[in-house]
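Kindly inspect this chain:
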Amino acid sequence: MTVRWHDHGTILGLPRVVVRPISERIALLNDVYDDVHATYGGLRLDLALMPEVLDRGNWSIDRFHPSEIGHRALARAWAERLRVAGFDLPLPSLDPEGGCPPSRRRDVAWMVTEGAPWVGRRARDLGPWAVRRVWAVAR
C-alpha cells in the first residue's frame, strides 16, 4: 500500500515561492513511490485526486497532519480500495466520534504553545536550508 502525496502548497496557503521547495520534495517522494508501485504493484491512494484533501476541516492547525475527520476520510478511502481488491471489511464511519471540535481559539492556543516554539527551534536548522532553496528556485 502506497500513497501519492498532494501539493501541500494548496493546503498551506503560502506564496508559491515559499512552497515550491516543498513541492519539489513531494514530487521526488512521489517518483519513488511510483517506482515502488511499478516494481511491486499493490494498492495505492493518490491524495491529489481526493477532493476532501482541500477541505480545511480535514486538517489540523499545522495543515500537515489530518484532523480526526481527515483520518476518517483516509481510513475510508483505504477501506474502499481494500474492498475492491476483494477484502471483506466494513467501511469506517466519516462521522467524528471524539476529540475536540476545531475552533479558532484552540488554533490560536496551539499556535502560541506549540507552533511558534517549533518554528523557533526549526528556524535554526531548517531556516537556512529553506532560504537557500527559495533563493535557488526563484532565480
User: Anything to note?
Assistant: The two ends are 38 Å apart (CA to CA).
